[in-house]
């Protein structure tokens, strides 16, 4: 017999015994008073009733506690104490199971949160039921306030609204959003369960920018090559079709050589850029004498200027033994580009100053100052973009490729330094390469 049956039997027996005892006592008293049967029944019934009332009260106590199971367990006698303990155990087991499931859910949500992609859950009527931190950031949502809102009330971009309405979610959709600046998100919906939806968002701004840059770059290179090629073709046709005098032939060949040189310069700069971009950051264990660099730069500058500009190279005698670390050809290319620009954008007769100086913190500065045409402030932030020119025809006429300053910027950044530009239109410019202290030493 299990314990619940024995409990039931004991309650029944207790009532029977109490009823019988009450009946006997009542009958005995009734003998003296003249109503033995009536008094016996009355006392017997009263005893059973008293026991029932006592059980009802204990049952109530237990019920009260069950309504607030966090309260301390009431002190109950006998079998009631066991009932209360068993109920409490079941409640504890249930609480443990809930806590375990909650911990699993938290772990699962943390895993979703750890992803850089945003996740937004929608119910069958496209109302938001959960938003990850990344999704809140992508769409500018409030994770609490915006719950239960219809998604298209908050994400209103037409491309997304159409995507959701069309119901074909095999491919993701690209959506522009403005969060301070223009950002591109890739959104992909997945349907699961009973019409529920999971919306994944991925920030693809960098990828889009890289794609645009690549497209622009190819378009620019093609354009840069097409122009001299067209001119060359024209000359070739002329040479083939027309009987030219010796003087004319020499002039045409001279012009053709100019165009070929232009293409050669462009290819050389493209190769330099590709090489710089593709090679690892220069190690800091290779040292080059600054004085030797300056000497070569000066020779090249004088060659380019062909005596048209007074060129001075300045550095303290104490800097004779100073060295910078990195790749010699890259430093030469960066400095050479600045000096070549100074020569090309400075009218004859105006001076050009090349200077190396040490700063108090040990860093070094290589600068080129010219008194040439100068640059309007609005162009300065864009000068290091590939193919950006203030005046395209002047650049091309002087053999410019539009890539010089982007090479300079790359080289300096790879060496942990910085390119600073100050300029005033009509007055001249100063281009400075800042070399960090860790890359400068006295040999
Ligand atoms: P480019 O081959 O056209 O000179 P760069 O990248 O070297 O290309 O320079 C970009 C543009 O910056 C040039 O086209 C020119 O307009 C401007 N620039 C560069 N250096 C100078 C300078 N020293 N003085 C005036 N303008 C300059």
Chain-wise SSE layout:
Elements lengths: L2 H31 L2 H32 L10 H37 L3 E5 L5 E4 L1 H7 L11 H4 L3 H9 L6 E7 L1 E12 L3 E8 L1 H37 L4 H33 L8 E3 H16 L5 E4 L7 E4 L2 H17 L7 E7 L5 E7 L21 H6 L6 H11 L3 E7 L3 E8 L4 E3 L1
Helix pairs in contact: 1-2, 7-8, 8-12, 9-10, 10-12
Bound molecules: adenosine-5'-diphosphate.
The site of adenosine-5'-diphosphate has 23 residues, from helix 10 and helix 12.
CATH class category label of the largest domain:
Alpha Beta
Query: Structural class given helices, strands, pairing?
Result: alpha+beta
Biggest sheet statistics? 5 strands, antiparallel
Overall morphology: elongated
Number of strands: 13
Level-2 CATH architecture of the largest domain: 2-Layer Sandwich
Which cofactors or ions or other ligands sit in this model? adenosine-5'-diphosphate
Strand order of the largest sheet: 2-1-5-4-3
Return residue spans where pLDDT drops below 50 for at least 5 consecutive residues: none
| Approximate helicity band | 40-55%
Order of helices and strands: HHHEEHHHEEEHHEHEEHEEHHEEE
CATH topology of the largest domain: Heat Shock Protein 90
Structure description:
There is one protein chain. This protein is of the alpha+beta class and 443 residues long. It has four domains: 3-98, no CATH class; 116-203, PAS domain (Beta-Lactamase), CATH 3.30.450.20; 212-277, Helix Hairpins; 287-442, Histidine kinase-like ATPase, C-terminal domain (Heat Shock Protein 90). It is built from twelve helices and 13 strands. The strands form three sheets. The chain has a five-stranded antiparallel β-sheet with strand order 2-1-5-4-3, sandwiched between helices. Strands 7-9-10-12-11 form a five-stranded mixed β-sheet. A hairpin with a 1-residue loop joins strand 3 (173-179) and strand 4. The longest helix has 37 residues, at 78-114. The chain is elongated. It binds adenosine-5'-diphosphate (ADP). Adenosine-5'-diphosphate (ADP) is lined by residues 337, 341-342, 345, 370, 372-375, 383, 388-391, 395, 400-406, 429.
């Amino acid at each position: 017999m299990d314990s619940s049956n024995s409990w039931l039997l004991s309650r029944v027996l207790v009532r029977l015994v109490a009823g019988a005892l009450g009946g006997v006592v009542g009958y005995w008293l009734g003998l003296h008073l003249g109503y033995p049967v009536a008094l016996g029944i009355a006392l017997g019934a009263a005893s059973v009733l008293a026991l029932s009332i006592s059980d009802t009260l204990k049952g109530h106590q237990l019920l009260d506690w069950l309504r607030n199971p966090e309260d301390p367990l009431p002190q109950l006698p006998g079998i009631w104490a066991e009932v209360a303990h068993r109920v409490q155990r079941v409640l504890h087991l249930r609480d443990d199971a809930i806590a375990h499931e909650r911990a699993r859910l938290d772990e699962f949500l943390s895993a979703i949160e750890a992803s850089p992609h945003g996740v937004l859950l929608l119910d069958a009527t496209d109302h938001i039921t959960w938003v990850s931190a990344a999704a809140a950031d992508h769409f500018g949502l409030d994770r609490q306030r915006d719950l239960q809102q219809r998604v298209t009330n908050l994400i209103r971009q037409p491309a997304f609204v159409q995507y959701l309405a069309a119901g074909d979610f095999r491919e993701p959709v690209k959506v522009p959003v403005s969060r301070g600046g223009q950002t591109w998100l890739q959104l992909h919906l997945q349907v699961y369960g009973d019409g529920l939806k999971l919306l994944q968002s991925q920030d693809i701004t960098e990828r889009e920018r890289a794609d645009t840059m690549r497209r622009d770059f190819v378009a620019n290179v093609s354009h840069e090559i097409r122009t001299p090629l067209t001119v060359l073709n024209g000359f070739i046709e002329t040479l083939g079709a027309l009987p030219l005098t010796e003087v004319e032939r020499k002039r045409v060949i001279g012009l053709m050589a100019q165009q070929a040189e232009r293409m050669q310069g462009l290819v050389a700069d493209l190769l330099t850029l590709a090489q710089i971009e593709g090679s690892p950051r220069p190690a800091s264990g290779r040292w080059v004498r600054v004085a030797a660099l300056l000497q070569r730069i000066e020779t090249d500058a004088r060659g380019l200027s062909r005596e048209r500009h007074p060129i001075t190279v300045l550095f303290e005698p104490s800097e004779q033994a100073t060295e910078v670390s990195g790749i010699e050809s890259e430093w030469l290319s960066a400095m050479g580009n600045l000096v070549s620009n100074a020569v090309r954008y400075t009218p004859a007769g105006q001076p050009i100053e090349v200077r190396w100086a040490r700063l108090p913190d040990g860093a070094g500065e290589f600068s080129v100052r010219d008194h040439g045409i100068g640059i309007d402030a609005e162009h300065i932030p864009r000068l290091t973009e590939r193919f950006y020119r203030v005046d395209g025809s002047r650049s091309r006429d002087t053999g410019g490729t539009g890539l010089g300053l982007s090479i300079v910027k790359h080289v300096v950044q790879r060496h942990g330094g910085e390119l600073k530009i100050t300029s005033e239109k009509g007055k001249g410019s100063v281009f400075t390469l800042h070399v960090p202290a860790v890359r400068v030493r006295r040999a």
